[in-house]
Amino acid sequence: xxxxxxxxxxxxxxxxxxxxxxxxxxxxxxxxxxxxxxxxxxxxxxxxxxxxxxxxxxxxxxxxxxxxxxxxxxxxxxxxxxxxxxxxxxxxxxxxxxxxxxxxxxxxxxxxxxxxxxxxxxxxxxxxxxxxxxxxxxxxxxxxxxxxxxxxxxxxx
Amino acid sequence: xxxxxxxxxxxxxxxxxxxxxxxxxxxxxxxxxxxxxxxxxxxxxxxxxxxxxxxxxxxxxxxxxxxxxxxxxxxxxxxxxxxxxxxxxxxxxxxxxxxxxxxxxxxxxxxxxxxxxxxxxxxxxxxxxxxxxxxxxxxxxxxxxxxxxxxxxxxxxxxxxxxxxxxxxxxxxxxxxxxxxxxxxxxxxxxxxxxxxxxxxxxxxxxxxxxxxxxxxxxxxxxxxxxxxxxxxxxxxxxxxxxxxxxxxxxxxxxxxxxxxxxxxxxxxxxxxxxxxxxxxxxxxxx
Lengths: 157, 287
Known about the structure:
Chain A is α+β, with helices and mostly antiparallel strands and about 160 residues long. Chain A has helices at about 25-30, 75-80, 90-95, 105-120, 125-130, 140-155; strands at about 5-10, 15-20, 50-55, 55-60, 75. Chain A has 6 helices and 5 strands; from the N terminus they run ββαβββααααα. Chain A is elongated. Chain B has 12 helices and 14 strands. Chain B has helices at about 10-20, 35-40, 75-80, 85-90, 90-95, 100-105, 110-115, 125-130, 150, 225-235, 240-255, 265-285; strands at about 5, 25-30, 50, 60-65, 65-70, 135, 145, 150-155, 155-160, 165-170, 180-185, 195-205, 210-215, 225. Chain B is globular and about 60 Å long. The longest helix of chain B is centred in the last third of the chain and has 20 residues, at about 265-285. The interface between A and B is medium-sized, with 32 and 29 residues.
């Protein structure tokens, strides 16, 4: 099996791994780097549970080869904020109860972070559009949209 | 399972060397939004991936000498937000904006959308309506241009020969007198696969249609031009009677199938309806 070295900056720390050409960014984030906050839902780009920010763009980690992330910056949910220092979005998700089973939450928060980075005060429609790549099987979209809207308003103040 | 090799050219001259060296046994990967799931589920097992996703020379949207050119590695998100496309060819920007979802649009590329040659390729109908040509690079470094209307040969089958790479597209900058409109019908607003789509570009001389380009998606084995509808429109004053005729002709010209997303009957009906609406919307007139 031919392998290739990659070096990827995950949440500010450079991580190294030997990968095959077929390994996806999702595979190595979870299996090599222990980034279990990146969820494996459908592994084919339908659900958004594995959303990460790759060089400032929100992408599906399952639709990106590990080799395509070589030398780049990856931000996962843990890079957005931590339990000690939550991002306003994470705080807002908690306050609004925008979490049911929680499986989509990491991807939702990361997509919302990318949205607010490029559009700090989105309309409700822009929020819906911004998270349209992320499926919530509990269908708890209303509270998720409200949480993102509230975080954007609080940040704007 | 055989393993896959991976190489990443830094620039076009690198790419030429690699195409020459690995003639015929390489598969190009850019965004990978189609190819990666196909590799995962075993549909495709490429021997060698040539990754063009970070090639700056293939990632551009330019306007010069009355022509607009887009590099194959340009992402769909870049197209949807491009001031050049929003100003000159809003039907293309509109189609890009409706492809997949924000996550896939950040990876998926123009070249991939066309080279994958699905009948539901979202960027194809507006590009057909804009008279776009595809630029193809052959091993050995020669390039050739093919009108997009001759690029699609059949279901997921294109004019690309062994080892050839689609490097970009170009189309003449539409004239001020050219009026366009585009509609994609999906089963939901976001992340939908096209059930039927129509793109029109009508060059108008007052009320008379000088030149018509009408293209449809998801209603034939390939993204198609509706040549008979175009002929019917050209040289005529567009009125309600002509629109009814167009609806009948487009139904005869398309060859939709029934699948999980829609029946043949539905596709036929909705294609005629959105054709009428798009012509009316392009002309912004009540007829």
